[in-house]
Amino acid sequence: MELISQHTKGIMEECKVRASDAGLQFESDSLEYIVSNRDLIELSPKGMIPTLYDYWVNDVEVMKKKGVYKLYPTNPYETVINTRPAISFYNDNNPDWLNIMIFYHVLAHIDFFQNNIFFKHTWDENFVDKALAGKRLVEHYRREYGRWVDYVIEFSRGINNLVGFYSSLSAKHFQKELNPSKPISFYFDVFLQEIKKVSEHIVYEEIENYNRTLSQHPEVGESIFFAGIKRKYPEFDAIYARYDEEKRRRKDIMQYILDHSAFLNKEENRWMKSVMEIVRETALYFEPQIRTKTINEGWSSYWHDQLFRKDERIVGHESAYAKINAYVTSVNRVGLNPYAIGLRLFWYIEKLANQGKLEYKFHKLQDILSRENYDQELGKGKEAIFKVRENFSDFTLLNTFIDQDFVDRYKLFVVGKRLNEEKEVYEYYVKSKKASDYKQMLMDNMYHPPVIEVNKDITDEDNLYLVHHFEGKQLYKDFIPETLIGIEYLWGGAVQLETTEIVKKRKANQTKNGFDLRKVLYTVKDRQIKRKTL
Amino acid sequence: MIDWNQTIKLLSSPDVSDEVKDNIRRELELSQHLQFSGTPSYYFELYDRNDFFMLLQRSVPGGGQIFSMKSLDDLLEKDKQREKDGFPKKIRIGKILKPTKGKKGKVVVVPTTTEPKFLHDDSITQEEEEGSTGGSGEGEEGEVIGEQPVRPEEGEGEGTGAGQGEGGEHDIAQEAYDLGKVLTEKFQLPNLKIKGRKRSFTKYVYDLTDKHMGFGQLLDKKATLRKIIQSNILFGNVKEAESPDPGELIFNPKDQVFRIMSREKDYESQAIVFFIRDYSGSMYGAPTEVITQQHLLIYSWLTYQYKNNVETRFIVHDTSAKEVENFHNYYSYQVAGGTYVYPAFELSNEIIEKEQLARDYNIYIFYGTDGDDWEDDGANLIEAIKKNLRYTNRIGITVAKSSWSGGTTRVEQNIGDSGLLEDKPDLIRLDGFTAEEATEERIIEGIKALVSEKILQWNS
């Protein structure tokens, strides 16, 4: 890896000036490197982070079974990584005009990383440094504990797609001063609703009552309110004293194991927790990238087009640019292009906002004709797309803005695949032009790891009980035993997984299959797997 | 593809046993739900693209790195240690990547592994139809906007895929030869006693073998002396029943016989291997994995045994048979068809006869199936196999049963009934096991059963 030439760096700096004039916000420092194929071979399994810890599986071809399960890329082969300063990677032989276009694209990515709230947990650190510290620690442990370090890495990576990205994010965003005091939260959330199981309107009445007391007596309102509670429920104090808040907190599997595994918390095994933390932090770092693929590529495509077309350095290269831009941002006849969909959504949102169609007033309109002709000429388009860039992820973007107008405007549809027996071909056909179907199809194709949680009521020191919340897809069965064996090692006791399987059922005299759902329980103990139907 | 009329006839025919009818029904049913893992991707999915690919227009080399960093031996060593530590083995050596372009039949082997996690299984859903994707442009609902052949044509599947990693896979390849060596040494596959050395057409040796009178590189004294005696007999200098006096002999310079450097065709062993497999719908999943992996390992082992002088031919069949170009196509093709086994063996006969392969090659045929055959009594199959047996060194049949086929499959039954296995144990072997439970060890044991000189008894 070597830095780009001074000449090319000069071009980049010029691009930065114009990009920030247009409103993009990014830290002024950045590093650009030329990468060889050899560099890429080493970098891609590490998600392009040069300082990430070494792991032998990165040296081996990892099998992906297309059609059976998808291994979603976390960050392989991105041209820019979310570090401070941001680092980006280039070819050594691109012409200047192409570099200008790519630089604009990259700068928009950097702007996205540094302003989109899903990346908030990465803002205060430079991941390259953090990863380097992790890598050194892993190497240090390897000298001491040898292959056992790799086992811990392996088993931690086995559950690194289940890190609680959203829960860690909301903890980061939530303003703690808004939290009511512990006994108050307990009274309303747990005591009334779960223990006393009172009806909803009583809860609201109580909340009303609490607010009134508090506003009448700002200083002592809470104690007055509790005095009332104790009269009504003399047992409250005793129940509250027994209440273990820790047990209720939502935790991802990895965090739960870190906190509660008796094995890991033994003095001689404490180093394992540091290794697990490294794997967990790395996974959390990559999480927002896979969840913002469409919006991020759409944003960057929007800006490389905006900025480069207005840049006088394009002169003489217009047709070459048009060609590559079309290659990157055209919607496919069949297939999905996140660059294209994201870009069109930003165009669409900008237009809606300019016309005032994002305003409440517009949503109240019922009449089709006046809806169609609605144009307040608000000129709020740019403002709106910057807000979207700040606050939306792939899911929220697609879920909010894909409507029938959008689908019709860009002639989008859902493509189905069916077998034509006579012609011996698979036919791809227009299955639906409905926005709701199109949206659903996108949702089905989006990254979504299974939701698996610890059942804290059944779990004890010897037995970790996991529950998979079934969402229409079963778990990939071949991987269950090995993953469980890994978790068993980290937990230091038996591990159980409750999950749901889809069973094909052929009914008599029917050509089509029926489906049954079946709950099963996997148990791993002493590395022996048992499976039984519940 | 299934000939539907024929199928329906079979189903209503009184001559067809219930068991075969059941199999036919199952095949028909499977054909509606197949996901074709091997067929080349027709379109890009949501996460298939990245900036490197789109902006820098650069495909990222994959594969290859293994060998710059870890040798196969290291990885196998690691696996042994894993077993000792009580964890499941992780390295699989049988994974096939695309063969190098332009070189026929060259198989590329890399050690591979998986990173098991809890992942959603995309192949089974409660909906009837296969996954859908996005599209755009003109077209009314229901209109067909693209077609993809069910049986991929030759050459397809190269370069039509997502493009990622394309090309890179060819960079550095672990030759099958090395894997064969590992198999022979570490897994104790037998060394082959090669029958009959045949003349090679491709290899030459250079040696002082040609004789030349008058001049040359090395005087052949014995031949020269013989020549001088001959001449002197003609001159009458040497009489019968008298020992000649060397001093009296007349010496003609032209009688000197020299050895001269020359090119000779070498005699060596070479083999041609026919890999045949059932690629019908019922083979989907584990049976296909197991068969292709085993065939790859067999190829590697033969490559080592024959010191790279192994040619390969690949045949796939459903209700009819066809030859495919390379291992990649061989292992990736999949159709939703029915199953007749005999056309495949007939095709191999045809190729052997047409190209007169028996004259110059040691011939091996390895066949992989899930045991399904719509031909009830297997008469055509047995006849074709008997014909094969006339030229082959060994026919090895692997039956990788699906979990639902249980018991003795039709192929096993028909071949068993024919008595061939007892009559010609040195020429034909059969090994059957359940595909889902087949570990790498079992697959290698299977190879031993198929190729060893003695018959191994495998208790499964």
Task: List the topology elements.
The complex is a heterodimer of chains A (534) and B (460).
Chain A: E1 2-3, H1 6-21, E2 30-34, H2 37-43, E3 61-62, E4 80-81, E5 86-90, H3 96-115, H4 127-145, H5 147-157, H6 165-173, H7 182-195, H8 200-216, H9 221-232, H10 236-242, H11 245-248, H12 253-260, H13 270-290, H14 293-309, H15 318-329, H16 338-355, H17 360-364, H18 368-372, H19 381-391, H20 394-401, H21 404-409, E6 412-420, E7 425-432, H22 435-445, E8 451-454, E9 463-469, H23 480-491, E10 494-506, E11 513-525, E12 528-533
Parallel strand pairs in A: 2-5, 9-10
Antiparallel strand pairs in A: 1-2, 4-5, 6-7, 8-9, 10-11, 11-12
Chain B: H1 4-12, H2 18-31, H3 51-54, H4 65-69, H5 72-84, E1 92-97, E2 108-113, E3 133-136, E4 144-149, E5 174-175, H6 176-186, E6 198-213, E7 218-219, H7 221-235, E8 257-268, E9 271-278, H8 286-305, E10 310-317, E11 321-324, H9 327-332, H10 342-354, H11 357-360, E12 362-369, H12 379-389, E13 392-401, H13 410-418, H14 420-423, E14 428-434, H15 440-451
Parallel strand pairs in B: 9-10, 9-12, 12-13, 13-14
Antiparallel strand pairs in B: 1-2, 2-5, 6-8, 7-8, 10-11
Question: Can you give me a brief rundown of this structure?
Answer:
The complex is a heterodimer of chains A (534) and B (460). Helix content of chain A is 51%, strand content 14%.
Report on this model:
The complex is a heterodimer of chains A (534) and B (460). In chain A, 51% of the residues lie in helices and 14% in strands. Chain A has 23 helices and twelve strands. Chain A has helices at 6-21, 37-43, 96-115, 127-145, 147-157, 165-173, 182-195, 200-216, 221-232, 236-242, 245-248, 253-260, 270-290, 293-309, 318-329, 338-355, 360-364, 368-372, 381-391, 394-401, 404-409, 435-445, 480-491, and strands spanning 2-3, 30-34, 61-62, 80-81, 86-90, 412-420, 425-432, 451-454, 463-469, 494-506, 513-525, 528-533. In chain A, the strands form three sheets. Chain A has a five-stranded mixed beta sheet, with helices on one face. In chain A, helix 14 (293-309) crosses helix 16 (338-355). Chain A is globular. The model of chain A has no long low-confidence stretch (mean pLDDT 89). Chain B has 460 residues and is an alpha/beta fold. Among the domains of chain B are: 174-197 and 269-451, Rossmann fold (3-Layer(aba) Sandwich), CATH 3.40.50.410; 203-266, no CATH class. Chain B is 33% helix and 22% strand. Chain B has 15 helices and 14 strands. Chain B has helices spanning 4-12, 18-31, 51-54, 65-69, 72-84, 176-186, 221-235, 286-305, 327-332, 342-354, 357-360, 379-389, 410-418, 420-423, 440-451; strands at 92-97, 108-113, 133-136, 144-149, 174-175, 198-213, 218-219, 257-268, 271-278, 310-317, 321-324, 362-369, 392-401, 428-434. In chain B, strand 10 and strand 11 (321-324) form a beta hairpin. At the A-B interface, helix 2, strand 3, helix 3, helix 5 and helix 14 of A face helix 3, helix 4, helix 5, strand 1 and strand 2 of B. Strand 3 (61-62) of chain A pairs parallel with strand 2 of chain B, so a sheet runs across the interface.
